[in-house]
Amino acid sequence: MQDHQQFLLGDFPLQNGEVLQQASLAYATFGELNEQGDNAILIPSYYTGSHRNYFKLIGPGKALDPTRYFIVLSNMFGNGLSSSPSHSGPQHGADFPAVTVKDNVRAQYQLSQALGINSFALVSGWSMGAMQAWQWAVSYPGHVRALLPICGTARCWPLNHVFLEGVKAALLADGKFNRGRYETPPLTGLAAFGRNYAGWAYSAEFFRDGLYKQLGFESLEALLLNWEQSHQSWDANDLLAMLKTWQGGEVSFDDIGKVTAKTIVMPGSTDQYFTVEEAGLEFEQLPVGIGVWLPLESPFGHCAGAPGRFAAESEQVERAMRELLGS
User: What predicted TM-score, i.e. pTM, was given to this entire model?
Assistant: First the structure.
């Protein structure tokens, strides 16, 4: 049974002047839109994630309560559900065009208009979902009443860019990748991609104190093998398409200064690539009086903000959502 729908965009013009042919945006909704069209909440997907990863946050009595709100979960281009290199018809594989965060948000805006949404009570997301949330607040300020970026910055800062170059290089080193025109999956490169990524995802404390054992891994090697296998399940071109989108995040300080949404900025206190320092530089650009600085305190690095993964961290996110929604 399919748990999502497809919004057909037709031939979709991109920020770089190219066209994403026969574009489609995968999404899921919970609850009902009110007559005013203003009880909607939007949560975009993140890297190697989909709308399904947010299901555990939704339910009666929670901040994301479908009996009160119309909740929209959107999927990024490249994630295998929306238009992606792995199934994009005429632009399959290496021929898939470069898509930006701004392109994703513009497609989501078109979806919101088709659904009859006049404004969002909240736009939030983790990681790349946070990047899209920031872009919403600057591209469509009149449509976003509250903003909660979790473990994600408005732009891809230089350290973040270099980290992504490292995992990309590990994948491209596999000869089977063949510049994206592979006949069989480049499994060695995908495994190297995952193993390279694992060290960045958590904190020094996480590894030093053996917190991976709380996740069911008896050793560091067991954790690394899990990251290898997880990334081997992905299409290589899909991973690279989303990575290019990530690196293209470019919300400027001037843009942040134009945000009108009530905002809680929630960087991960031990995040190694969406760093708390750089999130702070962005926070300082918000207009006076609309922003609250509220780091997500956790030893779990970037993964602290993963939806519903850690109880204490999830409670911090829940409280922030409730504060912004006034509930």
Answer: 0.97
